[in-house]
Amino acid sequence: MLATLLGLSVWTAPAGSAAVTGTATYKVWHWNIAGHALNFGATDNGLVDAILGSLSYRDPDFISLNEICPDQYRAILKGLQDANWPQSPSNFARFEPMPDVDADLCKSDNGGPDTDPYGVAVFSKFAPSGTDRITLPSDGDKARKLLCVPITSQPGGLRFCTTHITFKNAYKQAQLDTVRTKMEQFTAAGGTVITAGDFNVQPHDPLLDNWYAQSATSSNNANNSGIFREFDDLDPLCPGWGEQTTEGTLAGLCGQPAKVDHVFAAESRLVSYDADTHPIARNRCLNRSHTEYIACSDHRIVTATVTVTAP
Fold this sequence. Notes:
Elements: H1 2-6, E1 11-12, E2 23-32, H2 47-58, E3 62-68, H3 70-82, E4 93-97, E5 119-124, E6 132-135, E7 145-151, E8 158-164, H4 169-188, E9 192-198, E10 228-230, E11 261-266, E12 270-278, E13 285-286, E14 293-294, E15 301-309
Parallel strand pairs: 2-3, 8-9
Antiparallel strand pairs: 1-12, 2-15, 3-5, 4-5, 6-7, 7-8, 9-11, 10-11, 12-15, 13-14
């Protein structure tokens, strides 16, 4: 987050918050990699190397990937194993496909038939103790998912989740409500849940009013009534909104392109947090014929650091 670069303070729990009985700090890394749309399911065009390079440099505790093809998932899994990143090399990754009614499949990496739908994936440095695979209300296109891993080895009933909400306006509300309700249920049961993903909704959209806590309200993000904070909502570049996560033509606020990738957690579980987004690499990923470089994705990488309570 820009606040870090400027030497400004990150958010800290307000006076009068519930007593902290223990805390834990985690680093989160999220990217919608356009693994099918821009990278045609490839593992040898530079995308996987770019991902593993960023992960090696950032060394996150949790990784969220959207629009990832199965071959890419397996290549990243192996790369993280080879790098000795997970505490349990045999239990640290989950993939959930999002089948498409139009059979919009990942292009084969070896020139063969296209056979696999892309999906969402999570990787955890700590061994998951289970998996939540939740199908969201149908948008008539893809079987979109909320994928979570509970981490009982960590304090506070920790869960890490990823999701990818539809781009179809008529179905966004139902899918957002499903994800939000699950997060609220996990939180009400005494847990701490961190959810990252491409929400296809911007912070100032009324659809997120019942997500953001009232304390996040600003001229850039009003009418909030929820229980969550988004980890870049304190960025002084655009308070209450944050920093762009795309570099396309869809307009955001504060003179920026759109922000649709978010990392949320309940305000009641937060001690401090900040986040940053990173410009899209344009000299790392090759087109299908390997003749020229293309943008690795149409989304930026989002990184965050959060300290949470362990109730």
